[in-house]
Write a structure and sequence with these properties.
about 75% helix
Amino acid sequence: APSVRASVLSRLSFACTAIGDVEAGSRGWMDAQEQLTNRRVGDPGWMYYLTPNHLDCQAGYAMVLAGRQQLAKGERATARALLRKGAGLLRPELEQALAGSRPAPGA
């Protein structure tokens, strides 16, 4: 099923990025996104949670992890780029979470 393939690809993408192979991780993330667009009615019901945003968050977490590893190695420029990319992928999730905790305008 396409959603199952997307899930497996996203895990592979996370692993590649986490060990420092950001290029392979990015390819896996794009392949997972592509598989998700092929989702069918017959896909397993337990894959309900797999959305483009979920894939973006997984990729964002992996980029942050890779960035922290680069920072620990003293590679500040590489770390900064990875952390920014990770934050960019996580930002929609963070904005949504923060919106839920903010008081309504004028309240």
